Amino acid sequence: MQMIESVRFFTSYDANKYLGTLFRLRRKEQKISELELSKLLGISQQQVSRYENGLTNFNIIILFKFFYALNMNSKEVEGIFNELKGFYSDSSFGGL
């Protein structure tokens, strides 16, 4: 997946920063404004900005809303989850 490779430099950062950057790139690729995305997600434009800047934790519900709103296919979602494993693969999480 091309988008994951373009944000791989965030490996040392947290998962929220990674996801936010990924979703912002995808939104811009699809020429969707923050306001349009906020309406699709049912949240404010300001909250979209906070997610995209890694300032807010993603929960599973909003994560899947982003996947759906940004038309991400199952291969892309699988790739994202595989990347996220790297953020949580230390012993404190049981070596996911």
From TrEMBL:
GO MF annotation terms: DNA binding
InterPro entries given in the database record: Cro/C1-type_HTH, Lambda_DNA-bd_dom_sf
CDD domains: HTH_XRE
All residue ranges annotated as the HTH cro/C1-type domain in the record: 23-77
Extent of the signal sequence: none
SUPFAM superfamilies membership: lambda repressor-like DNA-binding domains
Top-level taxonomic group: Bacteria
Name of the protein this chain belongs to: Fimbrial operon regulator
Organism: Providencia burhodogranariea DSM 19968
Phylogenetic placement of the source organism: Bacteria, Pseudomonadati, Pseudomonadota, Gammaproteobacteria, Enterobacterales
